[in-house]
Amino acid sequence: MNKWQPGASLNTLHRRAVMLSSIREFFKQRSVLEVEVPVLGRSTVTDLNINSIATSSEGAQGYLQTSPEYFMKRLLASGSGDIYSMGKAFRDGEIGVKHNPEFTMLEWYRCGWDDHQLMSEVAELMKLLLAGEDGTTCDVIKMSYADCFFDSLGFDPHSADLRDLQLLAAKLASDSWLDETRANCLDLIFSIQIETQLPLGVAIIYDFPECQAALAQMGQNSVGQTISRRFEAFLNGVEIANGYLELIDANEQALRFERDTEARKCLDRPTLGVDQNLLAALNSGIPACAGVAIGLDRLLMGILGVDSIDQALAFSWLRC
Amino acid sequence: MANYSTNEFRSGLKVMLDGDPCSILENEFVKPGKGQAFSRVKLRNLKTSRVLEKTFKSGESLEGADVMDQDMQYLYTDGDFWYFMEPDTFEQHQATENAVGDALQWLSEQDVCMVTLYNGSPLSVMPPNHVEIEIIETDPGLRGDTAQGGSKPAKLVTGAVVKVPLFLDQGDVIKVDTRTGEYQGRVK
């Protein structure tokens, strides 16, 4: 590998440009407004498993944003209506065949929509971007998180006993999972046993476990279990999108920030001041909405049929 | 030995797993968007040669294994052990039959082999890629038949049996690729 050269071929750069312009056209036709929000912010997310890259300007602490979410919600609270953003996001330490610490994220919000309406729009965008020259496109399937577990493993993830999940995770991975949390055990089992068996094309998985709600509203599934109104999309078994029926309750949001901070303390991870501007925006009122983010570098990997994110980027971190 | 964390796992790194020395073959970083990161690691158990797949949480660590590869000259066997010598220090090491393993059938005295030492003792032996060995047993050679086509088994003085062309005879010395067990040519 010649490090000075780009990882993406010239054809890939061309396909990338086509993808970006197709996305802009898609949203233009649907009257969704493109917005640019800061990449450098004074606060950042509290998510336990998302690490921000810290920096500073004239001594003032700053962070490279891990997603445009908080800024976009402040726009929604200001009456922007439907908006999308295409820009860079950064996550510390995420380096691998399918990870680059700097990546391109498409995120959009639909006011008055629920998660299922937004899933349909995600499917339409995927079909458009993955269409071949002959007009054929990818298959899209949609199934609940619980059904994935039933089909692959024969048990219900929502009612499963934590001990049983830990034992299964330990069997699949190593004994260090015997004392893991419910959320981490489910993630591991999903990654190893389910993700790898997802069909080619797009799979949209919805009704995530209550313990993995992140910023989604809670709800009930068809059999009355509490679930989070969160979904993810996978392209050829690779996670590419994460969406929510958005949490709009400021008190609940403040509570989740607190819980994240407590969990960070327990694990000796740096604790971060919560974004007071986001809480103020939610307090002032934000329209009911659904939002989703898609990793465009991974989407391009799927469009091109390449295995490594290095091949989808002009210069991945390996070459910077 | 030092401990190595998952982000230091590289192909070729030697670590201890469940009491056995292993060599890391591959390390894939996996992370669900909102979830905890982990590493899916392929390792070869250096005692059994078996390939294992293990999943570690990011930040978990394994103890390094005191394993090193060293070129050594094969000296002789007394039937119980096989003796190897470090060419620089003349230090001798005795390897068990288990450690010598499949290399046994290729070993001639003076050959330079790669010996993997674990805690200072031979764990495995890799014969040279190419060896030259005399045939001690084969069907009589068909003189003049140097064209291709047809082969026969030949037993070598070291014990290996390889397929050789029909014209070769007992007493001929041949060159063999030990990785494939294939005949490479006759040595004049």
Q: Can you give a write-up of this model?
A:
The complex is a heterodimer of chains A (320) and B (188). With 320 residues, chain A is an alpha+beta fold. Chain A has a domain at 10-139 and 242-319: BirA Bifunctional Protein, domain 2 (2-Layer Sandwich). Helices cover 35% and strands 23% of the residues of chain A. Chain A has 9 helices and 12 strands. In chain A, the strands form 2 sheets. In chain A, strands 1, 5, 6, 7, 8, 9, 10, 11 and 12 form a 9-stranded mixed β-sheet that branches. In chain A, strand 10 and strand 11 form a beta hairpin. Chain A is globular. Chain B has 188 residues and is an all-beta fold. Chain B contains 1 helix and 16 strands. Chain B has one helix at 97-100; strands spanning 3-5, 14-17, 20-30, 38-45, 51-57, 61-63, 67-77, 82-85, 92-95, 112-118, 121-126, 130-138, 151-156, 161-165, 173-177, 182-187. In chain B, the strands form 4 sheets. Chain B has a 5-stranded antiparallel β-sheet.
